[in-house]
Specification:
This protein is of the alpha+beta class and about 290 residues long. The strands form four sheets. Strands 4-3-2-9-11-13-12 form a seven-stranded mixed sheet. Strand 3 and strand 4 form a beta hairpin.
């Protein structure tokens, strides 16, 4: 009799979990669909994204120390950026509860994780991969994907890297070893993934997408639930460069947050000042500027 009760309870619990996932999936997707519009007439001529040259001494050190040319391989740019993303994914496990070292640059974070046998959260992984891409001469950004609810601290940080042969940005996620494609197998950008979620267009993810090589990622869980929630607001640093995230006295950092018309209710600029530097965030509804090609 006890066995029957336990099994019955397990079925109820499992069914409740699935029901919650389905409800949340629909909820977040509907929120995203209501946020499809931006202000295409908005102009932000004083804002310009910049990308550090691979000739920077710190990026050169990063490239030479870890022999990034060998890791990238001899294929085309697409295979190289995927190989570099996979290297970071395999090198440093993810743990969303452990945070990031104070010195937030790729060289230090890789060394700390190796010597202390520690992990990084998604932000640390994306910052590390971003600087690896810069060291290899690729224009890239680490991108914070956030929900509508500003009190929800669960966001996700991924990368966008520009592929010259495709004339476009593409999505790379070192946390889940993931990239996204359309039904033809063509790589998609973050902007395109968001648009396809809103407009119910088909997508696929690479079959080996995973979490710490313990759990496979499904497109339903990854895109239609988790990322549907976190593609409502999107933020990038204005300067894509080595060590940008490290907090230092007197250091000024600037970010741009792309918000839909559905959310446009805040001041255009927000300042955060602290002992270890300051942060200025520009809130814009101009997708042409935000997704501008380098």
């Amino acid at each position: 009799m006890k066995r029957i009760v336990i099994v019955f309870f397990s079925i109820i619990l499992f069914s409740s979990t699935i029901s919650c996932q389905i409800i949340n999936e629909g909820k977040y997707l509907n929120l995203l669909k209501n946020a499809k519009d931006y202000d295409l007439n908005e102009k932000n001529e004083d804002i310009e994204f910049t990308y550090q040259s691979k000739k920077d001494k710190n990026l050169k050190l990063l490239k030479n120390t870890y022999n990034l040319d060998s890791i990238a391989g001899k294929g085309n740019d697409i295979s190289k950026v995927i190989n570099l993303m996979r290297w970071i994914h395999n090198l440093i496990p993810w743990d969303g509860c452990k945070g990031i070292p104070d010195k937030r640059n790729a060289y230090n974070m890789i060394e700390v994780c190796k010597t202390e046998n520690r992990t990084l959260n998604c932000r640390g992984l994306a910052i590390t991969l971003n600087e690896v891409y810069l060291a290899m001469g690729y224009k890239s950004r680490y991108v914070t994907c956030m929900p509508k609810d500003s009190t929800d601290n669960d966001c996700h940080v991924i990368n966008m890297v520009y592929i010259k042969s495709l004339h476009k940005w593409i999505w790379m996620d070192p946390t889940f070893e993931a990239y996204v494609m359309n039904e033809k197998g063509e790589l998609l950008s973050i902007e395109e993934v968001r648009d396809r979620l809103i407009n119910d267009k088909p997508m696929i993810i690479n079959p080996d997408a995973n979490w710490n090589h313990k759990h496979s990622q499904t497109i339903k869980r990854y895109l239609y639930s988790y990322m549907a929630k976190n593609l409502y607001r999107i933020e990038c640093a204005i300067k894509s460069e080595y060590n940008y995230e490290t907090k230092e006295e007197g250091k000024k950092r600037e970010f741009i947050q792309l918000i839909p018309l559905d959310y446009k209710k805040y001041a255009n600029i927000k300042h955060n000042h602290g002992i270890r530097g300051s942060i200025k965030t520009y809130y814009i509804s101009d997708p042409l500027l935000f997704w501008e090609k380098p």
